[in-house]
Amino acid sequence: MSDKEAFTEHDWRRLLTSLGEDPNRPGLHETPARVTKAWKHWTSGYNQDPVEVLKAFEDGAEQYNELIVVRGIPVYSHCEHHLAPFFGKATVGYLPNGKIVGLSKLTRLVDIFSKRLQVQERMTMQIANALMEVLEPKAVGVVVKCRHMCMESRGIRTQGEETITSCMLGELQPNLALRTEFLALARD
């Protein structure tokens, strides 16, 4: 993005003014700089490559042939429709086929895709597809459960509702027993 296209502190000051606020008052004076920094963090997933995160390693554990599941992975994202936050937890699992990754890499994978403007459905598929493409496991399952501030704070204003999305790839699609096992492990 060129400097002419970049959203700057000046733009945040203009937003505050357009809302009827005085960006020079003490409580808001540093807000444009803070918001600029916050949005760089909230969208830092665009600058990260999932392939780099998911480098497989070999230490003997690659012979493991049962499901590997990490649950309770924090999700903090922003919807692309309103720029409103959505947040919750993800469960990511896979059935290895000779390649494994460190468990923290699954958390990092979720973080990469959640730090982009998103819709929950696409984010769920992106996480699953990246894991499937890089590790080439026998199966991948992803379940994401989030609350959406665009629903809770405006529009229908329903507090506490959770949206649950899932993506099942490989053997999790046709194998009902494996799918049932994954979903049981994913359940809180």
Structural class, from secondary structure content? alpha+beta
The rounded distance between the terminal residues' Cα atoms is 42 Å
N-to-C SSE string, H for helix and E for strand: HHHEEHEHEHEH
Coarse shape: elongated
Instruction: Give the biggest sheet.
Output: 5 strands, mixed
What is the strand content? 15-25%
Strand segment tally = 5
The low-pLDDT segments are none
Count every helix, treating DSSP H or I runs of 4 or more residues as helices. 7
Give the rounded overall mean pLDDT.
93
Strand order of the largest sheet: 3-1-2-4-5
User: For the CA atoms, what is the radius of gyration?
Assistant: 20 Å
Can you give the helix content as a percent range? 25-40%
Could you outline the blueprint of secondary structure elements for this entry?
Elements: H1 9-18, H2 31-42, H3 50-53, E1 68-79, E2 85-95, H4 103-114, E3 117-118, H5 120-135, E4 139-148, H6 149-152, E5 163-170, H7 176-186
Parallel strand pairs: 1-3
Antiparallel strand pairs: 1-2, 2-4, 4-5
